[in-house]
Amino acid sequence: MTTPIKVANCSGFYGDRLSALKEQLEGGDVDVITGDYLAELTMLILGMDTLRDADLGYARTFLKQLEGTLGLAIDKGVKIVTNAGGLNPAGLATQVQKLAAELGVDAKVAHVEGDDLRSANLFEGALTANAYLGAFGIASALTRGADIVVTGRVTDASVVVGPAIAHHGWTPESYDALAGAVVAGHVIECGTQATGGNFSGFTDLFRAGAPMTKPLGFPIAEIAADGSSIITKHDGTGGAVTVDTVTAQLLYEIQTTRYLNPDVTTHLDSVRLRDAGPDRVEISGVTGSAPPEQLKVAVNTLGGYRNQVEFVLTGLDIDAKAEWLRSQLDPQLTAADVTWTQTPARGGDSDTEEGASVILRCIGKDPEAGPLGKPFTGPAVELALASYPGFTMTTPPQKPSPFGIYRPEYVDRSAVEHTVVHHDGTREVIADPTTFAGPAELDPELGKRPSPYPAPADTITRRMPLGSFVHARSGDKGGDANLGLWVKNDGSPKYEARVQWLAKIVKDRKVRELVPEAKDLDVDVYVLPNLGAVNIVIHGLLGDGVAASTRFDPQAKGLGEWVRSRIVHIQEDLL
């Protein structure tokens, strides 16, 4: 049996810490370093780049990361796999080869393509249209000797699964092993979110003495031949790896209990976590089954233009001031869509002017830029001496900016030619799977919270924040918001009772109560007992997605923290 492969991460998004690749190379022994650069919004940004210059379309920061590290990686025999190729993996591969030549480094560079469906004209008006590819192309490139593999829109986990396939020799039917690697890849693909970043229990880590003021260490997955793994980080780096930090990332931006990947359908309700020592968490028990027959496609279209102006309202008569300003401004605005939002007024006699103020925002959207230029900002500025007392704008007038609309689509695999261009220039088309998941396996009802939930009746309760012993992690999936809630793993003997209580209280009606914006939206709640968790999908909360959303928190990143702060009735014997 092969030894575990150590796969490290050096990027969770386009803009992550540039020094992370060097830190992972110098911090200890790893076999492969991976980087994830592509979010739904990033694909839109790269699409806009290609409108300016067709030779762009890739994450240029990856080249900066390589400048001081490529020679070291080759010397240490560490492979690098990244999806930084974005819309132009061939272009980035060429730039990597040029950089290697300039540095005098013999680096074998391969790339994976075939995800870009723009030329197929399957989706009208698409600025970008990229199918999510699996990991076997990456595995083939590594098996054929590549030192660096650049891809386009593979799934986030594929950059981790590919090296594991190459190392362990898995076949397309190694479903459980593949599913375990997908889970490991999902945990480490967002960088330091697995080591304490964006973690609702960060104060617990401080109290436990974790080095939280140091730069957080990027995660590493030690993946065994059966797909089980240990999540860890280099010694001496900041942050911590605990069951809760790993759970936080596991619940990030998932949907049902079935995590659909091009290579395998991963059963999230089979995942088991165990503390395996300081900064070491074991993932085991993961099962998988045949993958879905179709591939998901991320489509971005240009939605038009947007602009906004913000006003500060201070002191008394806040609502009257807002009403007067809106009555003056609204008749003059010609944009197709105008949205007003206002932060809540704070109480009474504030010791600071800021504490006595609220922000009133006016956001305009239109298919054309014209109505959002001077016709939008000019009328606002002209009211400076002619409206409410204390009139203040937070910024000078801005120019309109384009925005995109994201939507998921699905295509038959025959529409996609998953292709590897090996380091020697030869091309290989990766064969599609021959067995696919059936309708029962893809049923969105699988794992949904039953109603009524089997649990004893409440005893005496106290009104307390939901976050008294519940952690949260939230994010965006297009126009939907994902919210994972789980009971903290603090060693309490009340853990099992708390888990049962959480699953009982969190039903769709309760979610709409906690998140009033969702009162007219579809809400799905899935139960993940092994993780002591529920996962919530609020459909349509983010409108047309992050770039188009006018919501205060367009990516739902703070949604979980807001919900944790909400007051609920908690059984006294659970506190």
UniProtKB/TrEMBL annotation:
Residues 464-565 form the AtuA-like ferredoxin-fold domain. Residues 5-421 form the Acyclic terpene utilisation N-terminal domain. This is Exopolyphosphatase. It comes from Nocardioides aromaticivorans. The lineage of its organism: Bacteria, Bacillati, Actinomycetota, Actinomycetes, Propionibacteriales.
